[in-house]
Amino acid sequence: MNENSRRYLQEFKLYIEVEKNFSKHTVTAYSSDILSFLVWLDDRRINDVTYALIREYLVYIQQFNYSKTTTARKIASLRTFYRFLYREKVVETNPALGIHSPKKGKTLPEFLTESEMEQVLNNIKMESPAGYRNRTILELLYATGMRISELSDLNFENLNLDENEIKVFGKGAKERIVLVSERAKDFLIKYIRTARLLIDKNAKENPESPIFINKTGYRLQPQSVRFAIREVMDKIELPKHVTPHVFRHSFATRLLENGADLRVVQELLGHSSISNTQIYTHVSTEKLRQSYNIAHPRAN
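The chain above was modelled as a monomer; its predicted structure follows.
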């Protein structure tokens, strides 16, 4: 990769981080995608890239058997990168115009039933402060539909437990309010008053202090939450792959099954478009169909 390419990559990263206000996860992913593309270009100049050369790159990455979702993101990264370069007059024409993402098949999100969720939660060992913290985290994920990155970023200033509210910052630093059940609130209060101080006796409760901490007193990272879930799932036998996002899917599905308005669920999840939320109605419809097929004597 030549020096000019390296400089444009840094400028692009700053552009999507500051001006476009992309999430940290998206900035990292897009930057990594463009880095891979520039390494593949080698010494070829950015402004010499043609539509045909981008197509050649897309054929090249097929050997890695990326999912349609990952391939679509890599194409989106390239399109965003060259829109930026065209805007900055680095290139005279945009070679990424006409490059389309592969169509993604609709897949229903995995979710847990209420009994499955209780099975997961009740298998968390709470004898240790870290165990109680992990139970509190999973209770909150299920009760609020938060992403784990949003939960990891929580500070004391985000809490308004008198009103059962938590302020979170989602994708693109968009602010929203999520609601907390009494059960999850009780776990959170007990964690703050006891387990958090046992994890680190010097832990502060300033407005900017992180809610969830590790044994060194630093902010608990999303990877630690994933590890806690894997640890629980290794102990119980469920025919489902449970990730932190499954708690979010389960939250949304449960609300819709109990009659919540789709727009309300959209707001609580922080979806910018209602179409992102509508997939959960398919989950509920599928459950309705299964119940009908089992209960109706002439369903089959």
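The beta strands are 159-160, 165-169, 175-179.
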